[in-house]
Amino acid sequence: MEQNLILAGVGGQGILTIARAMSIAALRRGLQIRQAEVHGMAQRGGAVQSHLRIADHELFSDLVPSGAADMIIAVEPLESLRYVQYLREGGVVITSTNSFVNIDNYPPIEQVLERIASHPRHIFLDADRLARAAGSARAANIVVLGAASLFSIIESRDLEDAVAEMFSAKGANVIEVNRRAFRFGRNAAAAYRSGLERGGTSLAVRQWIETLPAECLAAEEQPDAPPLEVMVTENRLSDAEAHAVERTLLRVYEQGRKQLYEHEVYTLLELIGAISPPRYAFVPKGHMMSEEALNQYPGARVVLKIVSPDVAHKTEAHGIAFVHRDYQTVSREIERLVARHAENAQVEGVLVVEYVERTQPGFGNELFVGVRATREFGPVIAAGLGGVDTEYFASKMRPGVAVAKALAKDTSAEDFLDLFKATAAYDVLSGHARGHERIVSDGELLRCFQAFISIARRFCVDRGVTGPDVAELEVNPFAFRQQRMIPLDGRGRLGTACKQPAARPLGKVRNLLEPQAIAVLGVSSKAMNFGRIILNNVKNCGFPKEHLYVVKENSDLIDAVRCVPSIAALPEPVDLLVIAAAAAQLPEVIAEVVNSGQVQAAILIPGGVGETEGSEEIEALVHQAIRTGRARPDGGPVFLGPNSMGLQSRPGRYDTFFIPANKLDNRWAAPARRVAFLSQSGAFIISRLSNIEMLDPAIAVSIGNQLDLTIADLLQAVAARDDIDAIAVYAEGFNDYDGLAFVRAVERATAAGKRVVFYKAGRTAPGRSAAAGHTASVAGDYDVCQAAALNAGALVAETFKEFEQLIELATALHDKEVGGRRIAAISNAGFETVGMADNIHGPRCSVEIPALSDGLRDQLLGVLERHKLAGLVNARNPLDLTPMSSEQVYEDCLRVLLDSDEVDAAIVALVPLTPALLTTPAEIDQPGSLVERLPRVFAESKKPLIVVIDSGSHYDPLARALRSQGVPVFRTCDQAIRSFGEYLCHRTRGATIRTASADARAIGTAPPANPAEKVPAKSAKG
Questions:
Q1: Distance CA 68, CA 89 (A)
Q2: Residue 531 pLDDT exceeds 50
Q3: 3-class SS at 844?
Q4: Is 633 left (phi over 0), alpha (psi -120 to 50) or beta?
Q5: What are the residues whose beta carbons fall under 8 Å from the beta carbon of 630, sequence distance 6 or more?
Q6: Is residue 376 within 8 Å of 737, Cβ to Cβ?
Q7: Cα 61-63-67 angle, rounded to 5 deg
Q8: How far apart are CA 206 and CA 218, in angstroms?
Q9: What is the arithmetic mean of pLDDT over 724-733?
Q10: Res 37: pLDDT
Q11: What global pTM score does this model have?
C-alpha cells in the first residue's frame, strides 16, 4: 500500500498543516512517511509546494517522480495546474477554487478550472466559503484536507482525530470548528463527485453545492445529497470568479485606496474571461522594465501611461506617450513621464501597454461600457459611443441613441444587447451605417455585457461583509481588432454600497385605502384648521359617523363627531389615523401610535420633518419611532408622509385633501373611474386634478416625504386592485433601492394589463467628481430612471401636458382593442390635416396615416356624394371635410373608417367656429350635435378614438361635455397625434413584453421586488 501526494499552494502555512495532519494520522497507524522540504516563497505570498509519501513499507526517497502522484492537493487552483504533469493515470486533483491573484495577467479563473477539469478525476470546492460556514475563514486548508480524505489511504476518522490533536491547545471551540471544516470539505467533495457522475458540468455542480444546507455538509457520516438541480448560470459569476475579483478588490482596499488603476481594471475583467487586453506590465516608480519582457511585445511601438490616483484623465493631463519599442527609448521615456508628473501628483509608476492599431479609425468606432452602484436602483449598466467624446455624444443625441442604459439586477445580457442594438454605436460597429464595416461580433458584445452585469450584480451592491464594494467600473474606450474587443483605458472606484432597507408590512396599505374606522388627531374646536377641514371632508364623503373619531382631550363632540382623550382610549382599533398635529409633536404622537396597538395605518399631514433646515432631529426621532413599530411581530403600523395631503379614496369613502370646495371640486357625486393617481407632490396632484377635471380617480394619493411608505409601495398596492386599470405616477426622488422596487412594480403592473403613466422630476444631475468616470455622466439617475421605466413597460411623459394627455388616454382607452398603428384622421381644416401628418414620427412613436384602398375610398365617396360634398372633398386620409360639413357627415365618415380593416384608430379634429356645427355652449345640447354623436360612436366602436378641439375657452364646455362621456379630448392636433401615437405604439409593441420575468419573480425563481407580503385587493363594487 502506497500513496504519493503533491501539496501545493501559496504562502506555506496551509500545506504544512495538511502535511502535519496526514503525518500524525499515518504514524498512528504505523505507516511509513516521507515529506520533502517545502519549496517556494512562503513568507511573501509566493507559490510553495512539497511532496508527501505514505506507505506500509519502507520508503527510500521523499520525492514523487513525474507521472507517479496519486493525488495533487492544492489550496490554490493555478498552483494545482502547475503540477498536473506529476499525476499518474487515474490520479485525482483536489483544489480549492479560491485564487490568489498575486501576478499580472493572471489567466481567467474559469479557464484554469476548465484545464484542471480535463482530468476525469478532480474535485473543486470553494474552501473559503465552506470554512466560513464551518465557523472560521482560517480553516480553508482543513476543508481541503477533508476533501482529500475521500481518496486517502488513511481513514477519515483518523485524519479528523489528527486535526483535533493539532488544535487541542487552542480550546474546544477551535477544535469543533476545525472538525466541522473537515466534514464540510469531505461531504462537499462527495457531493461534487456525485454531481459529476449524474451528468452535471463542473460549474453547474459547484453552483448546486452552494445550495446544500449546512446540516447536510456537517454530517459525521456522508449523507445522501439532495437531487442535483442544474442552476441558471447566465449573468452570474461563478464562486471561483467572485473570489478572484474579491481578492483583487481587497488588495486595493487594504492599500487605503478607493480608485482602481487601469491595469487593475484589466485584471478584474480578465479574471472572469470578459476581455483579452493588450499585453501590459505595471512598472512601479523607481523600477525599470526588463529588456527581455519588452521584447515580448508585438509591433514597433508601445504606449506608456502614467499611473497616479491624482490623474484621472490621462489624455488631457499629457500622461500618455507613444514611443518606439526599443529598450533605451522606453526606459528614457518612463523616467521622463514620471518626472513630469511627480511634481504635482502622487505617481505610483507607469503602465507599459502594447500599441493597438485600430481596425477602422474615425468617428463612432470606439465603445464605452460601464457599471455603477446607485442608491435608488442598485447596480446599473451603460454602453455607447466611446472615446473622449462619450459625454458629448450622449448630451447631443436623444435618449437611447448614444447610450443604452438598464438596471443590472433586472437585465440579462441578451436583453441589454437588444437595447444596445437601438443605439448609433451599434449601427456603426455592426456595419449597418453607410460607409462602415462590421468590426465586432454580437457574440463578443454579449460576452462583454454579461461580464459587466455579473460584476455589477455581485459587487455593486451591499454584500454584508467587511471590505470593498464597487462604486463604479468602466472601460472607455474599447477598440477592435479582428472583431475582438480590446480595452484601451479602464477605471474603477470602490465605495460602500447602499444597504437594502427593511420592508414595510404592505398588507396594511389596504387599511389605508379602505379603512373601516378612522380617527383624526389635531382638530381644533375653535377654528377651521387643517385637522377640522379634514374631519369634515371625511364626514361629508359619506364615511359612517359611528366609526369616525376625533382624538382630543377635554372635548365630547366636534362637528357632531365623538371625541376621545387619547389614541389608547379609542373604543375600537382604527384602520386609519390622520395626524394633523404640528411637526414637533410627531415623534411623541407616533410613539403613542406604535405603543397603543390601536392603529394600522396613519397619514402624517405636517411638513417640516427633514425637508427644512433645523428639522433633522425631528426626522431622526420619527424614524426611530417607526423602526420601533417595525420590530413588532406584525410589523407595526404604516405611515404615509409626512408633508402629505393624504388621500382621496372613493372606495374608502373619505378625502383628507384640505382644499376648499370652491377652489377644487372633488366631484364626489361622479362615479369613480378606474384610475389611481400617485404623486410625491401634493400641489402637483391637485393641479392635475384641476386640469383634468373629469379624471375622477378612484384613488388619489399625496405621498409626501416617504419616511415610511414609498412610491413603489403605493404603486404595488393600487396595481394589485381589481378596480384600477391605469395609474398615474409623479415622482421627484426615490428612497434607497425604491427606484428598483418601483421599476419592478411597474413591470408587474404592466404584465397584469395595467397602464402606468410616469413623470420623473429632477432632471439635472448633481455635479460629480471628474475621477468618477463617464458612467455617472452619461447614465445619471434621471436617465437611468427613464430608461428603466420604459423598459419595464411604463408610458413615460416628458412634459406635464403630455403626462395629463397620456393618463387621459390610458384611462379612457383601456378597454379598446389596439391592433396596429394605422390612424384615420378627419378634420374640417387643412392646417390640421397637414399638422397631423407632420407629427406621425416622434422620439418614442412612429405611426401611419395610410393611403386608402380603392374600396375604402369608394365607400367614403358614397358618403360624400350622399351629402353633396363629392365635388368639394377628396376621399383620402387625412380627410379634410372643409367647414361646410355637418355633424352627420362627421359621423358617417367616421363609421366607415372605423369599420374598415385598414384602420386601427381614429382622430376627429375640428375647428368649432364653423356655422355648420353645433359647438357653442348654447348649441351643444341640441339633438344631433357632436356631443351626442361622437360619444355614441366612441362607445360602439372597439377601436380607439380621440377628438381635437382647437379653439379658445369659449369652447371649453364642448370639450367638457365630450370628456364627461369618456371621450379623450385634445386642444391641438400636433399634441394629439404625438401623445396618441405614443399610446398606440406602447400598446402595439406590448406593454407586457416583460411578462415572463415578472412571472418568474412571482414563482420565486428571481428575487422579489419587496419581501413584504402581497397586498390583497378590494373591489370597489363591494
A1: 8
A2: yes
A3: coil
A4: alpha
A5: 502, 504, 636
A6: yes
A7: 120
A8: 17
A9: 96
A10: 84
A11: 0.84
